[in-house]
Amino acid sequence: MPSSEERLDTRQRELLAQWLPGLRVLHDHSWGLVGTTVLEVEHGDEHLAVKAGDAADHHLAREITAHERWLGPWTTTGRAPALVHADRDVKLLVTRWLPGTLVLGSDAAGDPATYRQAGTLLAALHAQHAVLDDEYERRANLRLTRWLDSPHRIDETRVRRIRELASTWPTPPARLVPTHGDWQPRNWLVDGAVVRAIDFGRADLRPAVVDLVRLAAQEFRHDPALEPAFFEGYGDDPREPTAWARVRLREAVGTAAWAFQVGDEAFEAQGHRMIADALTAFG
């Protein structure tokens, strides 16, 4: 097997050989910070993507669920990769290769037209299903507590303030929709004038506003013209102020703690800035 496939375990290699005998690896797109292997491959005349998770992975199952339940509005129009093979137990996924270049770092990253399309895509994902969940807010608060209890470099004064705030938060029923979970230019492709979506390892049922947090902390903050373009595509702004403030702070803490634990110092710094910004909403 090529060296890029050596990170796959025995079961993954065996299953991949059954699905795609004689495949040829074209490029290794693995990120490196986490244990997910991402390979661009050829099998006969097929151009495919292979994703495999390590023993600690909990993202491949989410990605498979997204493909099975929620990506239809995108895959039917060529805006997301179509599923070819998947096995949750083995943590292995094969999809069609999606043409395009990454928006992050390209000229498209500063083009309002990109965000208009991204808003339209996200609206289609969010609109297809909704459920009321009486326990979501309580679970979200527990996740916040777990992040605060885990290793991080968040200032202890801020930690105390966040714990105090969270102890007063209401837990109303939440309207959950299919969300991407990491909706930002590093997970968008542009092919000519067409924007497409990739990487569904954080997909889950959540409040729609969760998919706006990274954009608000990054692109909308750096270029205010991108926000109205996005909502031209998306439609009404779902950010009710009090719920939005809770979501922003939870996501900020998770960002800072996760980035510290995987050694991504730049993303950790962004998480600390997100915490500072989010706390301003609470005075």
UniProtKB/TrEMBL annotation:
Q: Which Pfam families match?
A: APH
**Highest rank taxon of the organism:** Bacteria
**Which protein are we looking at?**
Aminoglycoside phosphotransferase domain-containing protein
List, for all copies, the residue spans of the domain called Aminoglycoside phosphotransferase.
Answer: 80-246
Supply the source organism for this entry. Cellulomonas gelida
